[in-house]
Amino acid sequence: MTWRGRRGLPTSDGAGWITRHGAGAMTQQGPPAPAPPALLATDEPSAATAPGPGRPSRRAVAALVAVFCGLLIGAVGNLVHLPYAVMLPGPAANVLGQEAREDGQQRDLIAIDGHATYPTTGALDFTTVRVNGGPGYPVTVWDLVGAWFDKSQAVYPVDALFPPQQTAEDVQSENQAEMVDSQQEAAAVALRKLGIAVPERIKVGQIAKDAPSAGVLKAGDVITSVAAVAATSADSLRAAIQKATPGQPVDVVVQRDGAAQTVHPMTGKSPDGRTVLGIVLGVDFAFPFSVKIDVGAVGGPSAGLMFSLGIYDKLTDGALTGGRNIAGTGTIDSAGTVGPIGGIRQKMVGARRGGATFFLAPADNCDEVRGHEPDGMQVVKVATFDEAERAVASIGTGDPSGLPPC
Question: Of the segments 131-135, 205-209, 312-316, which one has the largest average pLDDT value?
Fold first, then answer.
């Protein structure tokens, strides 16, 4: 038998020699060489590739490297803090109900003493948001990644929610002061709706550190007049301040430690051109009986509307809600005007998760509401306490069809 082989390469099969003849032709001398033994399929590693004693396999090494890289990336993601804040839905709470306190006792969120109250049913839920980020609580890469993939959350530059240089203590103090004021104004609105007189006094709530009036006005001062104009309301006081020339002192009469005093604080000019004293106004009401609201650590002014409805419901015979679950949000001032709030989309989600099927939204928030109403929830636009009270009454009687949407 003759076949082509590699030129000039003699090979032995143990029985004869293959020698070259002619130009590339080779002739076998002796018996033909036996075919090489067939290779057996096996999943056992060869001696060349098998790991030695105590030596990890390539697969194990790759897995360890992947785990290490994952831990490293996770650690870096948690350590890198970014200048953003994440707003997400918080829980809803029924102002007509009770909550357990630290001592384990169940207490009414709204407690009224010194006046007749009436049993009621249903729910008037105030809504909340949670904020990850801000002074003392920076967000991480993973917080932002989670928020970007969750439509119920929103990401903001941190300066859009918190003023620069504000501390965590400043935020807590401001939120608590706003909550107290909202409760007072809510009670005044509800009582006045029932024809009960509630005199009010304007006081200095807080003074900014760099306020032009710092050192002259004091927190707790009750302001009775500005430039000889009686301070009958916060609006009248602000109007009187605007008549002063920025950078000039103004005569202010205050009640301090039980006595009237005339002081002369300096005014300043805000970035938008208004004349300011650099103070946060508070309202001090003289209630004829006790109205206390306890919502724990929740802060801010946005529950004012729902507080006023809850107080009104407890002071009137019958269930205003008709037993239905109604949620809402909005600030309230002593004149009964409902003001806009932040995070309304997150609050609607939280309300729906809490079981509400109706939601009262401030009219000035409607642009943010449209197109984002949760499934199964009817959103009703309100601008005043009277509109909100009529809306709840209509829902309670089972006739919500004519209520104005956003």
Answer: 312-316
